[in-house]
Write a structure and sequence with these properties.
This protein is α/β, with parallel strands linked by helices and 380 residues long. It has 15 helices and 14 strands. Helices cover 41% and strands 16% of the residues. A hairpin with a 4-residue loop joins strand 10 and strand 11.
Amino acid sequence: MYKREQIFRGREKESAFLWGARQTGKSTLLKMIYPDALYFDLLLANEFNRFLSNPSLLRETVEADNSSSPVIIDEIQRLPSLLNEIQWLIVNRKRQFVLSGSSPRKIVRSGGNLLGGRAIRYELYPLIYKEIPDFELIRALNNGLLPRMYLSERPARLLSAYIGSYLRDEIMAEAKIRNIASFSRFLGIAAFSNGEIVNYTNIAAECGVSGPTVKEYFQILEDTMTGRFLPSYQKKPKRRVILSPKFYYFDVGIANHLLKRGTIVPGSEAFGKAFEHFIYHEIYSHSHYSDLNYTVNYWRTASQTEVDFILGDHETAVEVKSTDMANPRHLRGLNSFAEEYKVKRLILVSNDPYPRKAGKIDILPWRMFLDKLWAGEVIG
């Protein structure tokens, strides 16, 4: 059993939205936290059709329930029409609702009701290091961190099915994409931008579509929480910096499969890319799960000096190297950033077996870095 992060943090009695991509574990988590809840699953045809034809049935059913248990509705984005009934029940009957789904995109795009601030928004991401007993880095980098994928001994078929049935078919249907071939090509080509600066013009040429269409495709991935941009850090730069964002898929296993990386082994280029993606996932998840909600950026100058992740308002700078022997060459980006900004902490995350200190820079083994991150010792 995974030790899922308690993302509600003592607010279990508040109404909430819980968003997250398919198979991140939303339903399992909600059933664990709220075992006695009145539960509706809109993936079930009979549930969906029942409420589709008559949304007021939800109000009648909830009013007939005399318990004080919360009401959980899974896949709420499939029936935005229920949200008016839900709002009425929250306001007039003081019932608690927890509404989960893959993303709010469909509701937002249709001008639907997101309950006017009456429900807290939470997001659930793929598994993190501290949620997995006996965590195995190589397994995580190869399989990814979706719960079902991480444990699989043969994840390739599961990942292929996930990409086909969800990333391609379901997202295309929700976004009403008509050019199936171009979007399918885009998913693979976008993977080559994973962890890299996005060049819309080049991607558009490879996909055979316009630049605005490619931007729309990226926006769809971001809206559906299956990809995200990492902005560049641009605050009062003394040197000329790169302005374009980087892009990451939401899970390292998805990126691996789209890139056809094969088995990832230590020392390979693919290991370095996947390792950096994994550390980014941990930092991004920590920002949201901790309620600190600090910004995460990257920094790169026109002369190609770079730091992988800037946390907060240049509070902490983190460089990620997969080497097991960090040397002065690996520290250049951090030292350059420290020359330009006042930084509280400079950290190099690596596969070094022991922590070291190089001037102002802490060289930390990845496991120690993550322990410190989740203990609140990196930022905050």
